[in-house]
Amino acid sequence: MCTIRLQGRGFSLIELIFFIVIVSVGLAGVLQVMQTTAKASADPMVRKQALALAEAVLQEVLQKAYTDPDPLVTTGETTRESFDDVEDYNGRSNATFTDLPAGLSAYTIAIVVAPATLGTLTVKRVSVTVTRGAESINLQGYRGAY
Fold first, then answer.
1. Is residue 19 part of a domain?
2. Three-class DSSP category at 117
3. Does 26 fall in a domain?
4. Residue 110, SS3?
5. Element (H or E) spanning 116, and its range?
6. What is the rounded distance in angstroms from the CA atom of residue 35 to the CA atom of residue 23?
7. CB-hemisphere CA count at 13 Å for 109?
8. Do the Cβ atoms of 108 and 92 come closer than 8 Å?
9. Three-state secondary-structure class, residue 142
10. pTM of this prediction exceeds 0.85
11. CA–CA gap between residue 80 and residue 64 (Å, rounded)
12. What is the pLDDT along the chain (146 residues), one digit of tens a residue?
């Protein structure tokens, strides 16, 4: 008589448990990387908003006159509407920019205006720093008397 021996096909319980453990460890690693990426995904938005805010403030300052058009008037230049030269912005911060949208209220603005020279040309260097949390953007521009 012939006996036919059937070989077992499939996986044993131990093999199945090993497979589940290995896949779980790999999946946990992938999810950890995705979580880290998701946490940092807002950082580019913060950087772009800070850069846009710094560019806007720097442009506003650089469009003002190099010297004070009314040097005898020393009072009354306390608001952005009354600023008429670059020096009026020196040392200003968020308190000066009260018309910012609510979404930008978490940003800190600092402006420094200092004399500088570019070769033989005397200019004023305007430095605008916008900060939010650990992100900080610093833009500099020069205003000459032309």
1. no
2. strand
3. no
4. strand
5. strand 108-118
6. 18
7. 26
8. no
9. strand
10. no
11. 11
12. 566 666 667 778 899 999 999 999 999 999 998 888 777 666 788 888 999 999 999 999 999 888 888 766 666 677 788 888 888 888 888 888 888 888 888 899 999 999 998 888 889 999 999 998 888 999 999 998 87
Domain encompassing residue 100? 43-144
60: Cβ–Cβ under 8 A, 6 or more apart, which residues? 80
Q: Tell me which residue of 69, 88, 61 sits closest to 142, measured CA to CA.
A: 61
Q: Determine, yes or no, domain membership for 9.
A: no
- Report which DSSP code applies to 9: -
Residue 97 makes CB contacts below 8 A (sequence gap 6+) with 57, 80, 109
If we measure between CA atoms, which residue out of 80, 82, 81, 84 comes closest to residue 109?
80
Give 55-60 contacts, CB < 8 A, sequence gap 24+.
Answer: 55/139, 57/97, 57/109, 57/111, 57/128, 57/130, 58/126, 58/128, 58/139, 58/140, 58/141
Residue 47 and residue 135: Cα distance in Å, rounded?
Answer: 7
Q: Exposure of 113 by Cβ count < 10 A (0-12 exposed, 13-18 middle, 19+ buried)?
A: buried
Quick check: is 134 in a domain? yes
Which amino acid is present at 30? V
Domain total of the chain: 1
